[in-house]
Amino acid sequence: MKEEPIINIKNLYKAFGKNKVLKGISLTVKKGEDLVILGRSGSGKSVAIKCLVGLLKADKGKLEIFGTDITKLNYKQLNKIRLRIGFMFQNGALYDSMSVRENLTFTLKHHADHLTEENIEKQILEALDSVGLIEAIDKMPSELSGGMIKRISLARTIIIKPEIIFYDEPTAGLDTITAQEISELILSVQKKYKTTSIIITHDMICAKMTGNRIILIKDGLIYVQGTYKELENSSDQWVKSFFFATNQYAAAPGFPA
């Protein structure tokens, strides 16, 4: 029996006034898949994800997660779905007034208020260990580097044991080496927690390292999709433009093969 996709978007339309951002996007994501979405700024990548979890209301279309069309759910029903989904935001979105421990505790208690203090501590340490930052447990966000903030943000994402993770520009603002480390962490998380992921990025190295499949959005529609290698070898000039800068670094030490 064929397995149903864990995410199914069909004919998604979204406009803001006269600005038609999405013009009939359709895509599916299989369980355990890491899907990368690429596109120029303003192409609607983040809008599609926000519609998918109900942060924005779609103008038209079917948006199914775990086999349920979220456009037909009330607030309480939608929140039940969201409890199974993790988000890693572009800026980290940590609370500046809370330590790393407090940030993770807040997230855990928000999702599962029945946990004992012992269980909370155990899960915090496990999440921080998964991103290699146990030693930062009592630091404040102001004491962390950009790369460390990304790691803590990822720890906060996985601490709720999500089945799906949405990554919004996970390597933005990072140097090449740190960005590569974050990409490796995304792969490690997928392997350890068996997550399904959608990764929105402009970083072609991140796309190459993390994506089982890549979708390019242009003018509100899916322009092309395939593996990194398939798209890299495309004869289409617009598609090739995404890979030009990356190929300049291909000979650099440590570049992923």
UniProtKB/TrEMBL annotation:
Q: Which Gene3D superfamilies match?
A: P-loop containing nucleotide triphosphate hydrolases
Give the species.
Flavobacterium cheongpyeongense
PANTHER family attached here?
Answer: INTERMEMBRANE PHOSPHOLIPID TRANSPORT SYSTEM ATP-BINDING PROTEIN MLAF, PROTEIN TRIGALACTOSYLDIACYLGLYCEROL 3, CHLOROPLASTIC
Keyword Nucleotide-binding in annotation: yes
Q: Does the keyword ATP-binding apply?
A: yes
**Top-level division of the source organism's lineage:** Bacteria
This entry's Gene Ontology molecular function terms read: ATP binding; ATP hydrolysis activity
Organism placement in taxonomy: Bacteria, Pseudomonadati, Bacteroidota, Flavobacteriia, Flavobacteriales
Kindly state which keywords UniProt assigns to this record, in alphabetical order.
ATP-binding, Nucleotide-binding, Transport
The ABC transporter domain, residue ranges? 7-244
Designated name of the protein: ABC transporter ATP-binding protein
List the InterPro entries hit by this protein, alphabetically: AAA+_ATPase, ABC_transporter-like_ATP-bd, ABC_transporter-like_CS, P-loop_NTPase
